[in-house]
From TrEMBL:
Protein name: Peptidase family M48
Gene Ontology CC terms, in alphabetical order: membrane
GO molecular function: metal ion binding; metalloendopeptidase activity
UniProt keyword annotation of Coiled coil present: no
Gene Ontology BP annotations: proteolysis involved in protein catabolic process
Keyword set includes Protease: yes
Family (UniProt): Belongs to the peptidase M48 family.
Keyword tags: Hydrolase, Metal-binding, Metalloprotease, Protease, Zinc
UniProt-listed Pfam families: Peptidase_M48
Organism classification: Bacteria, Pseudomonadati, Bacteroidota, Flavobacteriia, Flavobacteriales
Peptidase M48 domain span: 75-253
Cofactor(s), names only, from the UniProt record: Zn(2+)
Cofactor binding note of this UniProt entry: Binds 1 zinc ion per subunit.
Amino acid sequence: MKKIIALSLVFMFAVSCSTVPITGRKRINIVSDAEILPASFAQYEGFLKENKISTDKKKTNEIQMVGLNISKAVDKFMRANGMVSEANSYRWEFNLIEDPTVNAWCMPGGKVVFYTGILPICDNTDGIAAVMGHEVAHAFAKHGQERMTSAYGQQLGGVLVALGTSNKDPKAQQLWNTAFGISSTVGLLAFSRTHETEADKLGMVFMIMAGYNPEEAINVWIRMSQRAESGSAPPEFLSTHPSNETRIQNLKAYLPTAISLAKKYNTMPIKS
């Protein structure tokens, strides 16, 4: 049984390896769009019914216009790079929710939510574009599907640990299972940091393609850093996100590359 599960893991990773466009990072994904998108769209509709959509027409229009521009940049890239069927699968939608939480997110398939609480951090239209680009990038890179794949692998890994320690005393089994739980959790946290850094980079490219000022992506994280209370943030090692300072430095370093890539992608002909 152990050999079968181990071989299944190896086979799963071997046949489901692909590359994230633009960044070139190798990823493992066994979750298809056909499997995840209907659930994503349904959950989004449920969320909107249970939460208060903002009545601020000016801010809502701004969010939706920026979202439309960013999504057009993503769509342009995909169609210019032979990803037509994938581009057709997105159902872009952008909503502003009355909530003081400093957050925004994008579900697989292009369903975006901004909370009113993040608007002071955005500060201006370019700041909204920076956050929008980052969130849209999560959907573009299929981070949700990749995390689901990781969760499947974690579950199978837990089965392997249980089988491998089945002949040991209960205390030893508990020790090994605890160790696996800690290591796998930290591993997934690190994986999330990888996604966040990748979304920062992709988002900067997309916001430039859409005509926004990329330096505002850096300023967003400067404002986020200024907002954070001293000592309130967890250590970066145990955080699902890079530290604000790390993000600021990474974005500053990536800015010339993002400008070059955006110029290249904006001049690419659209393939039929």
